[in-house]
Each structure stands twice: as C-alpha cells, then as structure tokens.
Specification:
single chain, about 475 residues, alpha/beta, Aldehyde Dehydrogenase, Chain A, domain 1, 2 domains, seven-stranded parallel sheet, six-stranded parallel sheet
C-alpha cells in the first residue's frame, strides 16, 4: 500500500514520539536528540573538537550535504510543522525551507584580513566560539534550525538547539535529518543536538551551561531578554512591527499585489511580514481596491469590529473594545494565540463573517490608535491607516515601528521619499517597491537569514556572525616589500 505525503507525515510523527519514549534510544542520542542537557552539550562539544580537525574545504562538503538533505525534505518538514503547530501554510513553508537551504551563506562567508609593513605581518581570522546554544521559535521551527545549522557549522561551531515545546517533533526531525547528512558526508555525529522534551526550564539551563560559549535567541521579547541576561555573549533576534508605507507616486496595482503577498506569507508569521499599512489619503481607496483585486478580503463596519474582538484578548478580562489609548492597548491587550498563524478564511469564519474562496489576507481601515496598529499580530488581518501626505506617512511609519529596528517597506517612485523613510526608520531591512520577503532573498537579491538580530545589532546574521576574530602577529618578518 502506498502512502500519500500527509499519511507519511502522520506515520513519521507517531514513530518519532514512540522512539523518544524509549530510554535506551534517548540516552544514546538518536540523531542528536538526548534525554539530558549535559549529554546533549557534551556530545556537541566532542563533535566540535572533531570538526576543528577538518579542513575548511571538508567543512564545505558537510554544508553541501546539509543543503541537499534540507531541499529533499523541505515538503516533509513543512507538512510536519503546520500539522504540529497549527500555524502557517504548507506551500509557504516549503518555499522558506528551500530558501534557507539554498541561500544561507556557508564557508564562503568567512574572510581573513591581513596587514603587512615594516614591522612584519598580522592576520585576523574568523574562529568558532565552540558550542552555541540556539533558541528557536514555534513560528518557523525547521527553517530557523536549517538556517542556523548551516551558518553555525560553516563557522566551525557545534549547536545545541532548544526548540519551542509546541514544535518539538518537527524540530527533532530537522536536527536528525541534518545530522544524518553530516555523517553521510564523513563529518562527526552530534554536531547538532537537542533534547526530546524541550521546555522553558531547558532553555534557561542551556543559556547558563558552562560549556556553551554563545547564546543565539530567535523569538519574542521574553526569550531575547533571557538571553541577554545569561552572562554570555548573546545574539538576540526579536519581534518586529513592520510598517508598509505607500505614497501617492507609486504603482498602485503592484503595491496592492505585493502587500497581499508579503503580509500573507505563511499567514503573516514571519517577523519581517508587513504588519501595518500606512497610505497617503489621495491613493488610499485605490490601493485597497488593488488589494481586493489581488486576493485580499476587505472588512468594514460590524465585520471589522467583530473580527477585531475575536482576535484580541484582554489580559484584565474587561473586553478589548473597552480599551482605548495606546498605552492602555500595549499594557492590557494581546493577540489571541488561538488565531496566530491561522488563515484569513479560518479567522473570518470563526468570527461569523461569511467569506468566499481562500483570501491570502483580510484588511480593515482603522484609526491611528487601533490596537492592531501597535500589536505585532502575526496573523493575516492587516490594519490600514490613511494619512494626509507622505511626510506624515513617513513620520507615522517610524512611530509604528516602535524603534525595533527590524523591517520596513515602501512603495514609491520618488527616490527622495524612500531615502527619507530609510534614514528615519533605521530598520535592519528596508524593501522598496516589493514584498517584505524580498529583503531576505525570497524574490530579491542577497543571502537569507531567519535570525535577524535587531536588539543586539548584528542585523541579518550569517556564518561570520557566529565567529570570534582572532589576531596573529609575526614581528619583523614575512613582509616581502
């Protein structure tokens, strides 16, 4: 009997869970997955020592094997992630997995600097930290692991992953697939490790483990704060609230299409995805029409209020509609986790709104103080705010981004307008006249990363981010001029 892809995924999930229930298998570290933190860290440290004996060329061969394995199993991991977490779209996660497999920088990202002169020769090389503790999110579990693993191993490190508990099975499978690829290419086992049952406590212990030299946290503000308080060198990739600014000179048809594609990617889960649209009044109606024509569903009146009430929750139990003022919104309201990463179709139907087809996003025109303008929603219900002119659009776009230095987009034919926003917002990623995901190399030029370190300043991370600079000086020799 042949199994289709979905049936095969269900079998894999069951088998992996059963395997992790067997103490002997867990203790042995099947595919890099252990039952105890010390075992996971110890195995990674031993593997890193073995990796350090290999040439950079051999390290490149390991990376090549990892890329091939990630490409081969891109669909499997996408199906597993959506089924386990209940978030995102399978076809979008497939695209993300293929992106990180192909466009994450490898050993070519590492460079050596050299100076020579009257007093000899000095070189600066990029050396590994050793064992990295990497915290990965529920939103893009496999993509983040593939991306981190390629970059961190290319830099000469081993990695202990602490996945989000709600994505543990998918994360385990990603670690196993990549470890197998490394071993098949002649590399050491357990360069990537994790534990069978990750938890907040495990993540905390990993960050403070004496054999972990670098902490890399990809996730929300809480996990980034924990990483920064670990007492170790830490790289934090935190939340964003990317504004999309549209002026009155742009190609409105293209802007409408790009906004639906960008904000709708993986049901708005990526931190780079457009979260708020700020549009000049003169073209606001035309833009929203273009969004409707390109797969967006427009909400208005009672439907807009009903959907807003459905997706927001009041921490104090007083109801979202009774909350007003930006400070009150940020303090009291939160996005209901039940709807994070769900399709627009699902959210609207849950709210009792009749919808035709499968829209990529829903959008609603709102005032400046509306909760969705200020909360990173990570679901495909997008607020649209109209402003009188481009200068106010730029000013308000900067305010909406809240100083997170993450991502911003703009649609304009005026170079001065785009320059003004770029200089004012100071975001790590700034995309002009294209969907936000072009900024990480999906349909745009350049390498990719799913760990975008705004809070700690590294920006779009790559292999070189995960290295230490080491200097070697030879005095009064080897300068041949």
């Amino acid at each position: 009997m042949e199994l289709n892809e979905r049936e095969l995924t269900q079998v894999v999930l069951r088998v992996l869970d059963q395997m992790q229930q067997q103490p002997g298998l867990k203790d042995a570290g099947v595919g890099g997955v252990f039952s105890r933190l010390d075992d996971a860290v110890g195995a990674a440290a031993f593997a890193q020592e073995q990796l350090s004996t290999l040439s950079r060329e051999r390290r490149g061969e390991l990376i090549s094997s990892m890329r091939q394995a990630a490409l081969r199993d891109a669909a499997l991991l996408a199906e597993m992630a959506v089924r386990e977490t209940g978030m995102g779209r399978v076809q979008d996660k497939v695209a993300e997995h293929r992106l990180v497999a192909a466009k994450t920088p490898g050993i070519e990202d590492l460079e050596t600097g050299a100076w020579s002169g009257d007093h000899g020769l000095t070189t600066v090389e990029m050396a590994p930290f050793g064992v990295i503790g990497a915290i990965t999110p529920v939103t893009n579990p496999a993509a983040t692991i593939i991306n981190n693993a390629i970059g961190m191993i290319a830099a000469g490190n081993a990695v202990v992953f602490s996945p989000h508990p709600s994505a543990k099975v998918t994360s385990r499978r990603a670690v196993e697939i990549l470890n197998q690829a490394i071993v098949e290419a002649g590399g050491p086992a357990n360069l990537l490790t994790s534990v069978a049952d990750p938890s907040i406590e495990f993540a905390e212990a990993l960050m403070h483990h004496p054999r972990v030299s670098l902490v890399v946290a990809t996730g929300g503000p809480g996990v980034v704060r924990a990483a920064l308080s670990s007492g170790k060198k830490a790289i934090g990739a935190g939340a964003g609230n990317p504004p999309a600014v549209v002026d009155d000179t742009c190609d409105l048809s293209k802007a409408g299409r790009d906004l639906v594609l960008g904000a709708g990617l993986d049901n708005n889960l990526p931190c780079i995805a457009e979260k708020v649209i700020v549009v000049v009044d003169q073209v606001a109606d035309a833009l929203m029409t273009a969004m409707e024509q390109n797969g967006g569903w427009r909400l208005a009146g009672a439907d807009a209020d009903t959907v807003t009430d459905r997706i927001l929750t009041d921490k104090e139990g007083q109801g979202a509609r009774g909350c007003s003022g930006r400070e009150q919104v940020m303090k009291r309201l939160a996005v209901d986790k039940r709807y994070v990463g769900k399709t627009a179709n699902f959210i609207l139907r849950e709210a009792g709104v009749r919808v035709a087809g499968d829209p990529r996003i829903a959008f609603l025109e709102v005032g400046r103080e509306h909760p969705l303008v200020w909360l990173e929603q990570m679901l495909p219900v997008i607020p649209v705010v109209r402003v009188p002119d481009v200068q106010e659009a730029i000013r308000f776009g900067v305010e909406v981004e809240q100083g997170r230095r993450h991502t911003a987009t703009m649609w304009s034919r005026n170079v001065d307008h785009m320059t003004q926003l770029a200089r004012a917002i100071k975001s790590t990623i700034f995309v002009k006249n294209g969907p936000s995901y072009a900024g990480i190399g999906l349909g745009g030029e350049g390498f990719t990363s799913f760990t975008i370190a705004g809070p700690t300043g590294e920006g779009i991370t790559s292999a070189r981010t995960f290295t230490r600079r080491r200097r070697c000086t030879l005095v009064d020799a080897f300068s041949i001029v």
